[in-house]
């Protein structure tokens, strides 16, 4: 009888724990959720995060706070989330840099594929090649010839090691077989400020950070890195039109949680992310920035995991060939 009583008590305890776990998933969240953006405020990834966070706050019934933790090409903020509690209250919104960091950094304090739980893809943002508005070349053909002729006399800005702007510049220089003088910044926002101010010659960055400046005539635009022209920048040719088909790159963004976060919380965050991506205001703002939200089928853990895995393998070959690394 005593043995049966113990078994019954143990079974009741396990059932209670299971029920409490389910209830925890259903009750989540009970306090604000922090989304870490591993880049400076005002940059393209920050813009995406704040648009998403506003709608997710309404859907979750708790404030979703964007926290900028810049530095070390995005690895500082990502590392902070990798070691955060797996309770769903600290998330990471990162871009293509999640797939390039393992190859760029000889000593990375986390593994993007094993230290995070994927939630879903968000969007893939085209990139544009822009310059200070008084830069000598006026067309992409002229720019190509000018870069080949002047090489390291030209300054190229990027948002730091592993940033999308560095990757685009690396592909551009590889396509031309010419090196420019690269100038790293702590984020895309400061880099764009110096392009507008005329202190730097060139920048290749996401449309979320360049569209309004292009439309306002604050910078000179040469091309977009997509197979087809963009609806909101119809006069901007593609890089392929100028004979640079290899210079095609889109900057995908994804939402992550620390590994160990429960499936119930991941599912709740996933449904909230999908609600944000279906929001008319988000769709409209994304369109103004030259991008669109991913489909519901892509805003899933499986789709983000597949993207991260395939892109990590692809960029490893490119980065190893270029021989560009960071400590």
Automatic annotation (TrEMBL):
Q: Which residues form the signal peptide?
A: 1-25
Keyword Zinc-finger on entry = no
Q: Which UniProt keywords apply?
A: Receptor, Signal
Pfam families (UniProt xref) = TctC
InterPro entries, from UniProt?
Answer: BUG, Bug_dom1
Q: Which family does it belong to?
A: Belongs to the UPF0065 (bug) family.
Which PANTHER family does this UniProt record tie to the protein? BLR1237 PROTEIN, TRICARBOXYLATE-BINDING PROTEIN
**Which protein are we looking at?**
Tripartite-type tricarboxylate transporter, receptor component TctC
Native organism is Devosia limi DSM 17137
């Amino acid at each position: 009888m005593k043995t049966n009583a113990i078994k019954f008590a143990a079974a009741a305890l396990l059932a209670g724990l299971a029920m409490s776990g389910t209830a925890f998933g259903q009750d989540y969240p009970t306090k604000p959720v922090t989304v870490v953006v591993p880049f400076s405020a005002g940059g393209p990834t920050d813009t995406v995060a704040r648009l998403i966070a506003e709608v997710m706050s309404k859907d979750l019934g708790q404030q979703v706070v964007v926290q900028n933790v810049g530095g070390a090409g995005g690895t500082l903020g990502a590392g902070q989330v990798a070691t955060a509690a797996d309770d769903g209250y600290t998330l990471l919104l990162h871009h293509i840099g999640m797939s390039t960091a393992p190859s760029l950094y000889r000593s990375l304090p986390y593994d993007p594929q094993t230290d995070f739980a994927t939630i879903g893809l968000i969007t893939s943002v085209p990139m544009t090649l822009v310059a200070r508005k008084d830069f000598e070349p006026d067309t992409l053909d002229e720019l190509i010839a000018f870069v080949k002729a002047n090489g390291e006399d030209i300054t190229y800005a990027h948002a730091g090691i592993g940033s999308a702007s560095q990757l685009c510049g690396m592909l551009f220089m590889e396509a031309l077989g010419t090196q420019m003088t690269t100038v790293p910044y702590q984020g895309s926002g400061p880099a764009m400020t110096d392009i507008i101010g005329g202190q730097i010659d060139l920048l290749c960055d996401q449309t979320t950070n360049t569209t309004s400046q292009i439309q306002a005539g604050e910078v000179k635009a040469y091309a977009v890195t997509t197979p087809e022209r963009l609806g909101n920048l119809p006069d901007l040719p593609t890089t392929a039109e100028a004979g640079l088909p290899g210079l095609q790159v889109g900057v995908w963004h994804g939402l992550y949680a620390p590994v160990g976060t429960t499936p119930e919380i991941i599912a709740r965050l996933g449904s909230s992310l999908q609600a944000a991506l279906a929001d008319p205001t988000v769709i409209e703002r994304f369109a103004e920035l030259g991008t669109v939200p991913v489909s519901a089928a892509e805003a899933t853990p499986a789709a983000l995991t597949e993207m991260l895995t395939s892109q990590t393998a692809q960029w490893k070959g490119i980065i190893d060939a270029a021989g560009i690394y960071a400590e």
